[in-house]
Design brief:
By secondary structure, the protein is of the alpha/beta class. A five-stranded parallel β-sheet has the order 2-3-1-4-5. The chain has one domain: Rossmann fold (3-Layer(aba) Sandwich). α3 packs across α4 and α5 packs across α6. The chain is built from seven helices and five strands, in the order βαβααβαβααβα. The protein is globular, with a radius of gyration of 16 Å. It starts with 6 loop residues before the first strand and ends in an 11-residue tail after the last helix.
Length: 186
């Protein structure tokens, strides 16, 4: 089983696969999985949607930054960040110091197929016909920040296990080794 002494931080837009890939990646690495959005909900005692309704986007982002600071200062885990968390300077700075960052990069069609019709995503609270426009604006604004990640893995319309294998291979290539179940990550 692979082992690491670093936090593995998954970044990317809404629908890029951070949670789905993260859960399976954590299992393969023998690490705990932590979902940034769930940590925000625990801290606030509210759903992400309700945090938005009650406090607005600015307070949501401030809370997200506090949560990410705590998580990025913690023990090794696979951490799925919220979609915009990596945009914050403090979060990127801490991630560069304490984590191996992996951008799950997806094209607009993949993101649209994974997000259309889902009502639990506060940043996409609009009609399905407007989701592509919103996603494109997020891509334009946030992809330059995501490009600072250590590793980039394209996510596709494929089985999650295939993406996880590609992430593991990318980690090992980045660290200069080949993936195999008996290897250790440093």
């Amino acid at each position: 089983m692979l082992k690491t002494n670093k936090i593995i931080l998954l970044v990317g837009l809404i629908g890029s696969g951070k949670t789905s890939v993260g859960k399976r990646l954590a299992k393969k690495l023998g690490l705990p999985f932590v979902d940034g959005d769930q940590e925000i909900e625990k801290a606030a005692g509210l759903s992400v949607i309700d945090v938005f309704k009650c406090f607005g986007v600015d307070e949501y982002r401030a809370g997200e930054e506090r949560i990410m600071k705590r998580l990025l200062s913690g023990s090794p885990c696979v951490l799925a960040s919220g979609g915009g968390a990596f945009v914050a300077d403090q979060t990127r700075s801490l991630a560069k110091k304490n984590a191996l960052t992996i951008w799950l990069k997806a094209d607009i069609d993949v993101l649209y197929n994974r997000t259309a019709g889902r009502k639990r995503r506060p940043f996409l609270q609009c009609s399905d016909s407007k989701i592509k426009n919103k996603l494109q604006s997020y891509m334009d604004a946030e992809y330059p920040y995501y490009s600072e990640a250590d590793i980039v893995v394209e996510t596709k319309n494929e089985a999650v296990e295939n993406t996880v294998t590609r992430v593991l291979n990318a980690i090992n290539a980045y660290l200069g080794s080949k993936y195999n179940e008996e290897d250790k990550l440093l």
